């Protein structure tokens, strides 16, 4: 897919998302916020995936961002949603930076399991901490938006939707710019032959470390948005099933474009919502069946459909 096409998608992305927010029903607004929040986590996973790394522990940073939103207003007079998201993202990024010194040494299944281990350690700490609500968690304080506190719940949701859209759009711009840089282009090289990267004079471990930090930062931002939208945080946000869900969406969406994680997250949330609504006793079967279908018929994820469509149009134009 050409860089010009990717650039055009990013340019129209934010206006389209914001315009959709004006016409979506109330229930869809909440679904959109959660989709954008989890799409940020998957966007970070996409960076690791392109490097040949799979993390089953992104719930650690997702939960860290969520709990930061709940804890911070209790000690500091900070209620602005955008500021809370930014601080939570930075906090999760610092956590990823600290753990990255160990994680960057491992590859393949060892990397995945080590990420999972750290996530489960954090889960155990939260469950045992009565001051953090133990297994029940605790509620998040009401947030403001540039000093404005909406009185009606739907207005507050739409304001949060706008905040989530802006954060997701800037995250996509950053990742797109990063993938076009020298460090970003090393992803495929590290995946194929890490030793050759070292011979070229680049440090593969440092490159992996930086990607871990980016992925952790975005997961923290996603967790913060989800916590504000739900109004509650609990240890289930760190549980391994949550991390597995992020991997599921990464496979579903594909890694061909920075827009893919957001689209895949929207599709997954819609699929799960309607599966629970119409098949509450078998919704896991429906979702799992869809994943198997994607793996069998679309190994490149849902985004490969858009790539095929674009290539078909280019071939048609060139044949004229």
TrEMBL record:
Regions that span the bilayer: 29-48, 60-76, 82-102, 109-127, 159-179, 212-231, 246-271, 283-306
GO function term, MF aspect, one: branched-chain amino acid transmembrane transporter activity
Membrane topology according to the record: Multi-pass membrane protein
GO CC aspect terms: plasma membrane
Compartments (UniProt record): Cell membrane
InterPro entries referenced in this protein's UniProt entry, alphabetically: ABC_transp_permease, LivM-like
Entry keyword set: Cell membrane, Membrane, Transmembrane, Transmembrane helix
Origin: domain of life: Bacteria
Protein name: Branched-chain amino acid ABC transporter permease
Source lineage: Bacteria, Pseudomonadati, Pseudomonadota, Alphaproteobacteria, Rhodospirillales
